[in-house]
Design a protein that fits this description.
D-Maltodextrin-Binding Protein, domain 2, 2 domains, alpha/beta
Length: 329
C-alpha cells in the first residue's frame, strides 16, 4: 500500500485543525441585540476584539425578540450562553429547563423614561392620574414599571389609564397622534426622539435598582464548556469597563451596530454610564445584586409575569465569575 507523502499528511493535519477550530466557534444569543440597550456591551466586545483576547471564539451575536425566544434559541440551537430577562429565565428553570444564571448583567432600569409632548400639561408624576400611559405588551417590563411608578406616587394602577401600544417606537407615534398622553420609553429609542419630547420622570430618579437582564448558560455548557463561559464573562466585563471609561468611542461602536446616528449612540451610552459615585450601575460586570433581583420579581408579580418564589441557591452558579466578583452587592 502506498504511503501518503509527508507534505500531504501535514496539509491534512492542518486542515483538520482548522475544521476543529471552526467547529468551536460559538454564537451568543442576546435578547433584542441591535435594538435595546442591554446588549450594547456585546457590540463593543466584538468590535474591540475582547472575546478573542479572552480566549472565547465568538463568531457573532444572535438577536431575538424577547427573553422567551432567547431561551428557546439557547436550548434548541445547542448554544452555550445567552442574555435574557430575569423573570422569563426563572420561570423557564422552574418548568424544568436545564439552565443556570451565571451573571447579573443589567442591574437597573435606568434606560427607561416617561415622556410627553413639549406642550403637554403633564408636569409631574402626580399629573399622570387619569391619563393614558403607554406600555409595550401585557406582562412586559414596561407594564410592571408603570405599576411601580404609580406606587411611588401614592397612586394605584387604576389611577392611570394603561394603554397597550406594542413597542417603544409605536409609543412615540401614539403620543404624536394623541392616542396616549405619556409614553414609557427606553434607550436608544428615547435618545432618538428626545429632541422632540419632554421627560417627566426618569426611572433612575424614581425607582430602586431592579435587575433587568441576566447571563444564562445551559446545563451542558456549565458541565462541559466552563472555560468558554469564563472567557465570555471576562470579555463582557472588559466591554462594560471600556464603555464607562470611553463613552464616546463606545457610543460610536453602538451607533454602527444599532444603525443609529453617531450622536444618538453617544447620547445613549452617556445616559447609561452617568452613574452617581457609589450607586449601582446600569451595566454590571457580573456581580449579583440579589436585592435587585427580588425587587424585579416582585414587580413582575404585579402584572402576572411570574407567580412563584425563586430559589436563588439552586438557580445561580457563581463559579464562572472572577474572584473579585464573587461577593454580591
Amino acid at each position: 500500500m502506498a504511503t501518503m507523502p509527508r507534505s500531504l499528511m501535514l496539509a491534512a493535519a492542518l486542515a483538520g485543525l482548522t475544521f476543529i477550530n471552526a467547529a468551536r466557534a460559538e454564537q451568543l444569543v442576546v435578547s433584542n441585540y441591535g435594538i435595546a440597550a442591554n446588549g450594547m456591551p456585546y457590540a463593543v466586545a466584538m468590535e474591540k476584539g475582547f472575546f478573542k483576547q479572552e480566549g472565547a471564539d465568538v463568531s457573532g451575536i444572535l438577536s431575538s425578540n424577547g427573553g422567551g425566544t432567547t431561551l428557546r434559541n439557547l436550548l434548541g440551537g445547542n448554544l452555550d450562553y445567552g442574555e435574557a430577562d430575569l423573570a422569563g429565565t426563572v420561570a423557564a428553570i422552574e418548568q424544568g429547563n436545564d439552565l443556570r444564571i451565571i451573571s447579573d448583567n443589567v442591574l437597573t432600569v435606568g434606560e427607561f423614561v416617561w415622556a410627553v409632548k413639549p406642550d403637554s400639561p403633564i408636569k409631574s408624576l402626580q399629573d399622570f392620574k387619569g391619563r393614558k400611559v403607554g406600555y409595550t405588551n401585557p406582562r412586559s417590563t414596561s407594564q410592571a414599571l408603570n405599576v411601580l411608578l404609580a406606587q411611588t406616587a401614592g397612586l394605584t394602577p387604576a389611577d392611570f389609564a394603561p394603554t397597550k401600544v406594542g413597542g417603544f417606537g409605536e409609543q412615540v407615534v401614539a403620543l404624536d397622534l394623541g392616542a396616549i398622553d405619556v409614553a414609557t420609553l427606553a434607550d436608544p429609542v428615547w435618545s432618538k426622539n428626545s429632541a422632540k419630547l419632554r421627560t417627566v420622570v426618569r426611572a433612575a430618579d424614581a425607582l430602586p435598582p431592579l435587575c433587568n437582564v441576566i447571563g444564562v448558560a445551559t446545563g451542558k455548557a456549565v458541565a462541559e464548556h466552563g472555560d468558554f463561559l469564563r472567557a465570555v464573562l471576562r470579555a463582557r466585563r472588559k466591554a462594560v469597563e471600556f464603555m464607562y471609561a470611553h463613552p464616546d468611542e463606545a457610543g460610536d461602536i453602538v451607533a454602527k451596530v444599532y444603525d443609529l446616528d453617531p450622536a444618538i449612540g453617544r447620547q445613549a451610552v452617556h445616559n447609561l454610564t452617568a452613574t452617581a459615585p457609589g450607586a449601582i450601575p446600569y451595566w454590571g460586570v457580573g456581580r449579583f445584586d440579589i436585592k435587585g433581583m427580588d425587587a424585579m420579581i416582585a414587580a413582575q408579580r404585579h402584572v402576572g409575569a411570574y407567580t412563584g418564589t425563586p430559589d436563588w441557591g439552586k438557580m445561580i452558579d457563581r463559579r464562572f465569575l472572577a474572584d473579585d466578583l464573587q461577593k454580591d452587592y
